[in-house]
Amino acid sequence: MTLRQAGAGVLGLALLAAAGCKVGPNYHAPAMPAPPTYSDNGHNGNWAAAQPADAKDRGAWWQIYGDTELNDLEQRCANANQNIAAALHVYEQAHAIVRENRASLYPEVSIGADVSRNRTSANKPLRVGGAASYWDFLIPLDISWEPDLWGGVRRQIESSAASAQASAADLAGTRLSLQGLLAVTYLQLRGLDLQAQLLRSTIDAYAQAVQLTQTRFVGGLATQSDVAQAQAQLEATRAELIDLSVQRQQFEHAIAVLTGVAATGFTIPQKPLGDNPPSIPTGVPSELLERRPDIAAAERRVAAANAQIGVAQAAFYPQVSLGATGAVESSAISTLFNSSSAEWSGGPSASQILFDAGRRRARVDVAVAQREQATALYRQQVLSAFRDVEDQLSALRVLEQEADVQGRAVNAAQQSLNLALIRYKGGIATYLEVLTNQTILLNDQRAAAALVARRIVASAQLQIALGGGWNASQLPAN
């Protein structure tokens, strides 16, 4: 074979590889029908009302709460949270694997150098003359290439690229989960601040009640028992206020970890929650398939598993490789680069497995089963996502109704207490009646305050269930 013939053969194999088929099934996303609307989306509620700004970028979805402290904490979480950093490095690994697999499409070229001092035996068979010593200077150049005739390498690249996209979606999912957890924890902390505000105002009212009973006791209109009961209720309420600080500090510590700082010395100023959650448009269920990063990650893993079937099927076809070796070799370094010191060899080789006791077929069956497993997990993820949204929509609807009823209970309790105080001051009721009504009012007020926090937390959880501001279009290119 001449050098020209070898070059023509290499070019022919390269063209064949470039135009070669890819064995294995082409990917089609699994079908997953979505309901036309959410069950609770048609109910009257401020969570479903569309707003004029719906079209704007909602990546920073927490900004809808208008809290600068929360906005700052979320930014710190994105920049410093170590779980997000770990997920980023997982994606970087997956991206590097794509580059590694893509390199298999190209020849591998290596060069070396070897210098040795040799001596041949005088008694070596067929040796003429005595022993001889000589230098051997060698610079070899090796080229090897296995053309991707059947698409196995391209299927492997396809699989690793889909896996990298899944890792990118995992990164988005980790960021959404942790920033969502931060928002929920922060809003719960603000809910405790609302409870604390209520308890402080109640303590002021109870302190006035203690003063009232003491004045009436001095005037002979109340008993020592009335004073003791009023004082006991005041101190019990002060204890409840102190007890709130335990849970609040735990929330602060959790937020510190989420933002990547030590909990020691980390504090958040007190600020009570507002009254109602903001309006959150949900869109239609079919959009959820694009907006949830966990769904995108599951779908990309189906694509990766599907490509692995082609990788397994490519093993049924002959392996063709092309190799070439060239070198310059001389016994003297002064003549090493002379044309007469050149040597080379090259040519194609092929091999075909004739019998493997079903090993390759088993690998294809494994790949098919893995794709079906990934498909089932994808569909389950979609169903779970629909459930998450429905859970939060139901929670918002029910909690809104409960808040209305609880508000009427607070108003009734306040009216009952006012009447009890009038009766007590008029001497026609005991202080026990006042005490009972005070307890009922405080319990109802705390329940109403808790509902405020639960509704706003549910609104944040709804945004998390909807995927935050993420969209599958943010995935890196294949």
Structural overview:
The chain is 58% helix and 10% strand. It has 478 residues and is of the alpha+beta class. It has two domains: 21-105 and 148-317 and 359-474, Outer membrane efflux proteins (OEP) (Up-down Bundle); 109-147 and 322-351, Single Sheet (Outer membrane efflux proteins (OEP)). Strands 1, 2, 3, 4 and 5 form a five-stranded antiparallel β-sheet that branches. Helix 4 runs antiparallel to helix 7 (293-313). It starts with a helix and ends in a 13-residue tail after the last helix. Residues 42-57 have low confidence and may be disordered.
What order do the helices and strands come in, and which of them pair?
Layout lengths: L2 H16 L49 H13 L1 H21 L5 E4 L2 E7 L11 E14 L6 H67 L5 H35 L29 H4 L1 H21 L5 E12 L11 E10 L7 H67 L5 H35 L13
Antiparallel strand pairs: 1-3, 2-3, 3-4, 4-5
Helix pairs in contact: 2-4, 3-4, 4-5, 4-7, 4-9, 7-8, 8-9
